[in-house]
Amino acid sequence: xxxxxxxxxxxxLRAVHDLAYREPxxxxxxxxxxxxxxxxxxxxxxxxSGKTAAYCLPxxxxxxxxxxxxxxxxxxxLLPTRELVLQVCATLQQLSVHLRxxxxxxxxxxxxxxxxxxxxRGGADMVVATPGRLLDVLDNNGVQLDKVxxxxxxxxxxxxxxxxxxxxxxxxxxxxATRQTLLFSATFAGPVQQLARALxxxxxxxxxxxAAPDIRQRAIEVDAGRRSDLLCQLLAEQDGARVLVFVASxxxxxxxxxxxxxxxxxxAALSGELAQERRERxxxxxxxxxxxxxxxxxxxxxxxxxxxxPVVINFDLPRSPQDYTHRIGRTGRxxxxxxxxxxxxxxxxxxxxxxxxxxxxxxxxxxxxxxxPRDTPSPRLAASDDNGGIKGSRPSxxxxxxxxxxxxxxxxxKPD
Length: 416
Ligand code: AMP
Prior knowledge:
- The chain has helices at 10-18, 26-36, 51-65, 82-95, 114-121, 131-139, 156-159, 165-174, 190-199, 227-236, 250-262, 276-287, 298-301, 321-328, 349-358, 379-383, 397-413; strands at residues 41-44, 75-78, 104-107, 126-129, 150-153, 180-185, 204-207, 215-221, 243-246, 267-270, 293-296, 311-314, 338-344, 365-366.
- The protein is of the alpha/beta class.
- It folds into 2 domains: 3-210 and 401-413, P-loop containing nucleotide triphosphate hydrolases (Rossmann fold); 215-384, P-loop containing nucleotide triphosphate hydrolases (Rossmann fold), CATH 3.40.50.300.
- Strand 12, helix 14 (321-328) and strand 13 form a beta-alpha-beta unit.
- The radius of gyration is 22 Å and the shape is globular.
């Protein structure tokens, strides 16, 4: 099924062609016609499934058909991180390049609010924002939400995660009751399901049961003290392909990036502490090939979308099975083949076994000539029934706070 079978303006089809999207992805096939017709949609779609274009294309079509006067946004997209805000803005801009251009404004934290307020002063057609910064903008009378016709909550599971519930509640209260609402989430369990039910009682529901992305997973046993050397060897074997290396701490990211630079690799650390412009420059440099390797923590890596990112290396293992899945999901996107390598030292063997058990998989252990492991687990780990720090199934304090926040959001979303 080609893109031309959708009722999309030729200008949008040209942009799709420019981006070299040959065929619509599964979520695009299902979502584009429903969104274009104005239905509320609840879709389970993970990052990498093509979901951004699945809502951007029909929303641009609807805007093109009925543009509004541009004084206030008719489309509001909420996302959990600034990187995602920038990516969605970029997609909207790329897809609208041949249309009469809508005014698309990004509002996200970590940078001065003033340029965003200035940009909004002359009105906007579409606003793409993180909830916290949008509220700051609203507090400054920087935008009116009463003309919003479509609200998109993208990565809704994560929007509910980080205690965004109160912020969502305040924003929802400012939106017109009659509007189109689109809810995208990787999963619809627990709190997201409650929110979906409250917010979208009559939505069209889409569930794409896509085949697992094509990611080859390797587990290599190595002594802790030899991991850097082995990493250099593995990087050298990647033929210049881009690599994302995960470590456990910001400090570790800085140190490892420096060590790799000393060995001649074009590497940089991506840490949540870097100023926003610097983070963007690091990502841009990875995209344009100036950098080959990024060393990041789980938090800093959130939202990285580099189309050709074929290799992920767990230098330090992730804390939880969920983090493992998120990490390796950075690769193998949009139908590309990916490779995920985990380095396992003596003290993390038990932890990796638990990750495997929870994910119901079992990877063969590899050993590499020149790096044969000699260490034994440290006595504390060997003696105890330690689960290696993996998150247990009992809800943590943080989990409970999140659940409470999600319940509040669901309650707020209920019509009065
Ligand atoms: P997303 O799930 O929106 O984060 O998209 C993941 C990646 O797939 C992005 O780099 C998109 O540019 C790309 N993409 C989206 N739709 C298609 C398509 N139909 N064909 C090929 N690539 C696509």
